[in-house]
Each structure stands twice: as structure tokens, then as C-alpha cells.
Amino acid sequence: MKTLLDYTVIVVAEIGVNHNGSLETAKQLVDACSLAGADYAKFQTFRASKLASLEAPVAEYQRSSFDGHSQRDLLAALELSQQQFLELADYCGEKNIGFLTTAHDLASASFVMGLNSDFIKVPSGDITNYPFLRIVAEQGTPVLLSTGASDLDDVGKAIEVLESAGLSRSLVTVLQCTTEYPAPFPEANLLAMVEMGKTWGVAIGYSDHTEGQEAAVAAVALGASVLEKHITLDKSMPGPDHAASLEPDEFAELVQRVRRTQQLRGKPEKMVAPSESKNRDVIRKSIVAGDHIRQGEVLSEDNLSVIRPGTGVSPMRWPDVVGTRAHRSYVPGELIELP
Asked: Which domains does the chain have, with CATH numbers?
């Protein structure tokens, strides 16, 4: 069954907070996303005071790039204003690349939903956020549901909430994700992506936090219709996500590999490819006389053989030929004819 996205791979360049709170850096990243050939440049919209309490600690992966202990303080330094996001949306239009941003708190949700983007992203941290899921579903817009730090039951319940609020399951793409930066290769668990698609009858994708490109390309080969990968201007920049991101040249290479892999993947239909049709008769075989055969002689496994080319009677008709009588004489190697 075809999904909303059919067989096209949508590449989302996740800028996230790699702008480090700078509008200028954000625009430079949009430039890089566009030049790399991504379909969308994506950001994260939040208000630190609405996203994290004063007591919320920083994640373990964030400690290497942040000296403080409060997650709110970390996030506050990475905020952009709503006006800046509007400017970035316009800038993406100028650069001929789609604009997306993820709302990470209810206070930012109404602003993000009002941007009329092609997709609404549910971040992994909100897969159990019932009121957020309801608001998302009510928009009637295709949803990217990220599943980091979740099990199959969490995913199923989130899909049920979206459906109960009126969103068709055909508009949901579930993204396999491992919430660690960078994520260990053995924990990428790409087959879970495939299983979720089968279990819930939804389109599948991959939000990649591993280092390098291998996991992303493998996800596309396995059927991902959406690929999300972080991009940075420089992996050595301070900030929580830079180390798990690709630099512009690496991201451009990834896009090329994704497009080639998409071509290799094809469609779930076994068929004779145009390029190989001319070779079919060359490589296949036909039923031929394996010895001199007289007219009227019984055709048997002793006097028949199978040999190239496949321009005569197919060997698949062997049971139909054996036991009949030759309607004329044959020399060895001659194509057997059926009356």
C-alpha cells in the first residue's frame, strides 16, 4: 500500500539549535542546507521557561558543552524569537528550500501551527504529551512522529490519540530515533522502523543521531520515506548537538547517497527492468533435441535437453513435452516445436 509520501525520500536538514542563538548563523545554516540539496531546513521553537523547570537537569550529553546545571539556562541561550523565525521562514523561501520548525512547548505550539508548514513534527519528548498531540492532530496536517526513548506501546498510544482527534493514520510518518547524541551504532535499531510501519500501517522514517552517514543511508535502503539528520557549520562549535551533526560538505554527500540509494531501492514490485529485457532470451534456455530424433519418436528425458537461447519452448513446459511424439525429425541442438 502506498503511503502519503509514496516512494520519495524527504531529506530534512535538522538545524535545531545549532545556530547557538544567532540569527546570522541560522541563515548561514539555511544556505548550507539549500546548497546540500536538502528538501527542508528545520529548527526548534521553544521558550526555555515553558519547556523546562528550574530544577530540570541537563542531559548527560549536554554536560560536555555546558558548564551549568540547569537545563533552562542552557536552553535560554539557544532561543530565537518568533519574529526571527518568521524572518527565517522568508529566508528559506528565498533560498528555495522548505522551512520547518518543531514546537517544544504548548506556549510555542500555536505560533508554529500558524506557520502553515507542510509537516508538523512531534518531538520524541512529546510522544506522551496528550494535550500537545491533540493540538497537532486538530491541524489536519501531515505529522512526523519521532519515537526516541519510546517503546511500541508508547508509539501505538500516540497514534491512537492523533486518530481520536481526527487525524488520518495515512498522514502519520513514524520516525525511528535514538535519543542520544551521538547515538551508538548498535542502538540505532533500524529494523524497529520497519516493524512500526507494519504494525501501525504508517509511513516510516528515521531521525538520525549517529555519527557519519551509514545509518541514514541504511534507513533509506530499508524503506524510510523521511530522513532527518543534524547539520552544523562546524562540529567543534560549542553546543549540545554539534558533535552528532554533519558539516555542510558531509551533508551534501549524504544527500547524494540518499538519492542514489532511493534509486536503488525502487518500488515493491518485481518486474523486468527495461535495461534487462533485451538480455532475457539470451540468458534463458529452450527445450532442444539432445540427440537425433525421428519423426514419430517419443520425446523423453533421454533425447531432450535444455540449452540457450530462450527463444523456443520454455523448459517450464517440460512436463507438457515429455511423453509426446515428435511431429518431425530433429538434429541435436535443434529447437523442439510443439504442434
From this structure: 10-265 (3.20.20.70), 274-321 (3.90.1210.10)
